[in-house]
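pinned: reference chain
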Amino acid sequence: MNINASYTFNASPQAVWDLLVDIDAVAACLPGLESLEPAGDNRYRAVLTMGIAAVTGRYEGTVELQDLDPPNAYRLAVEGRGKPGFVNGGAAIALRDTGGATEVTVEGTVQVGGTIARVGQRLLGSVSKMMMDRFFACLQKRVT
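pinned: its structure tokens
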């Protein structure tokens, strides 16, 4: 499944970058997150609960920030497993100064398998988009 979205922040690219790499801000804004703990340089262990259709599950995995180019771009790699299945994915996050604001674009792919994929296949795209929208709306409130 492909994920593509863009979000506008009324702040400089540096301010938005600082927020995107602030583990406390990310943890506070990520829907369903139970914990996010450092596990090395730019690598974190995450536990979150999410539900799609009738399947709700707890996932444990890792999140890694790669190819950091402050304040312009980075890559995000995610791996998670839980009783309902697995989630593996990656995304390129790019920040662009639009003259008084910053546009953040997200382009990535996600693979989901197991029960959650079989039961919630048709809903995965809309649930992913909804979670990203909530996450970035929360960050937008924090930057202003």
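why pinned: The first strand starts at residue 2 and ends at 9. The helical segments are 13-20, 23-29, 115-120, 124-143.
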